[in-house]
Amino acid sequence: MSVTRSGPAITADSRTVAPVPGRAARVMTRPPVVAAGQGLSAPAAIIRHAVLLITGVLILVPFVWMVSLSLKPPGEIFRASFSFFPQQWYAVQNYTRALTEAPLPQYMLNGFVVCAVILIVQILVCAPAAYALAKLEFKGRHLLFGLVLIGLLIPHQVLALPLFILGYQFGILNTYAALVFPFVVSPFGIFLFRQFFKAIPDDIVHAARLDGLSELAIVWRIMVPMALPAVIAFSIFSVVSHWNDLFWPLIAVRDENLMPPSLGIMAFKNEEAGNDYGPLMAASTLIVLPLAVAFIAAQRWFIEGLTTGAIK
Amino acid sequence: MMAEIVPLPRDRATSVPRSDNSGPPLAVRAHRLAEIAVAWALAGPALGLLVALFILPVFAVFAIALTDWQFGASTMSFVRFANFAEVFADPSFRVSLKNTIVYVLIVVPGTIVLGLVIALLIESGKCRAFYRAIHFLPFMATLTAMAIAWEALLHPTIGLLNQALSAIGLPTANWLRDENTVLPVLAVIGIWQNLGFAMVLFLAGLKAIPQDLYDAADIDGADLWLDRLTTVTLPMLGPVMMFVVIVVALKAFEAFDTVQILTQGGPGHASEVLLYTLYRESFQYLRTGYGAAVTIVFLVIVVALTLIQARVMDKRVHYQ
């Protein structure tokens, strides 16, 4: 029975077999003819498109409405209307206010910095550990892997209280460090990298050693490049989660100049904009935009990264 | 660092027996020791950080939950399970727990049914990548910002929803300020956010169903789309279904952003959910011991669901 091969594990499976050409492997595992799609008659195909277009439009309504309001002057926003385009274009004013009245550029910059630092440190910490778990024999390996699995089990919100106290004790609350430190090690990162590293043949490691590469050099010059699909998937997962995270930043920082985008937009809503929807929607649009654009450009990688990440 | 010292003597004793091969042992032993040292050097930082940032904090939560400590207070005393007794006796916590369960009970079936239907439709024809991208978009969009967009949609006077309803003569409501509608509306947002995620998981499951089964069903006379669906597709999706239900339930139990942005638990306690209670008690009221007890309740629920999920995955492996 191939029940085992169904489900989200499939992506991990196909990759552990052939981790290097991840993209090609995934394309090849696709069945040539889609099972349920065989013999879909013309009327059925039209109904299918109709239904999917309707659900698609419903899904997009909040995005469309957000962008639409961000283009309208207050008068038009408060005059009920279904039209997407404004009668009087107010985009420049709304976006200017969003960018100047709240420190929105600062929020975005904070988001970039925090996400980048978290991701870099996570990879620096996780890849060597994953290599040790995958390719080296040592006492305590099972213990370490056990800790990784326990780490996977714990939802991060559970750690907020003790980490808040820890941050307080070290005097780093309300700094960039507070936004970063809980995430410097990712059990999911270690787990994912280990899976991929295990699939790389031992011969390659031996050959690299014979060539005089140090173990650390093997991690960075052999393992990580060969497991690039995993690194990309993990990077997307990490950046998207931390760009979107509200819970921890809400606890960790109070200073507006340190807020990442999701917390910043909340502050903007509460303080400045209130019911001033135009600039608020402009700010929301700008915060959603970077990831949305990246998603459209690299859809397959995003879906891969976010689903493997979210199911762990 | 301490690890480099501890395991060495033992390993020397076990891995290199003294009696046989007197030639290589020295080199082998040196190599083995070097490998162990390198392994610990590579894994050390991750190990230390895992212990400091994951393992010890969990123990700390349990410890705090057994005290009456309030953040900032200089004294505390051991109160055993008084916090848990207080939590479960507290009407507002009960409401929060009940709301969370209602929320989950709306979000999970809604997400599963819509995600499955959309996955089946997408898989059965053309433009798959296009439809998949549209339906997946909410799952990755910043929920805080999208919650603000939803607030505008749901606005009692200028919101698109009420405009549309009154245009076709249906009653309108103040969706986020009415205690009867607020929780279902938040659940709709939860479904909107998660259905793309469920859809993608179902798509992966559908792809894994072997074509042979459809051929066999065809020969047996199940040539209609609906027949194939009920005889092959749905039964074969069973394990994936169980898995998706739990994953989506986990997501739903972690709902926080929409409540924080849109309702702050109100009106009254009508939209207060577990994670919001955890946040408010721990970090706004600084009732640390109480907050820790709520955290433990949350942890127990999430861990229980995850363990069920692990068992389901295990079963699937055994089918092989």
TrEMBL record, chain A:
Q: Which UniProt keywords apply?
A: Cell membrane, Membrane, Transmembrane, Transmembrane helix, Transport
SUPFAM superfamilies per the UniProt record, alphabetical = MetI-like
Family matches, as InterPro entries: MetI-like (IPR000515), MetI-like_sf (IPR035906)
What's the domain of life for this entry?
A: Bacteria
User: What Pfam families would the database entry show?
Assistant: BPD_transp_1 (PF00528)
Supply the name of the protein: Carbohydrate ABC transporter membrane protein 2 (CUT1 family)
Principal cellular location given in the protein's record: membrane
Automatic annotation (TrEMBL), chain B:
Q: Where, subcellularly, is it found?
A: Cell membrane
- InterPro entries with a match to the protein in the record: ABC_transporter_permease, MetI-like, MetI-like_sf
Show the segment(s) annotated as Disordered: 1-23
Pfam families attached to this UniProt entry: BPD_transp_1
SUPFAM superfamilies linked to this entry: MetI-like (SSF161098)
Q: Which UniProt keywords apply?
A: Cell membrane, Membrane, Transmembrane, Transmembrane helix, Transport
**One annotated Gene Ontology cellular component of this protein:** plasma membrane
The alphabetized list of GO BP terms reads:
transmembrane transport
- CDD domains assigned to the protein according to its UniProt record, in alphabetical order: TM_PBP2
Domain ABC transmembrane type-1 intervals: 97-309
Name-wise, this protein is Carbohydrate ABC transporter membrane protein 1 (CUT1 family)
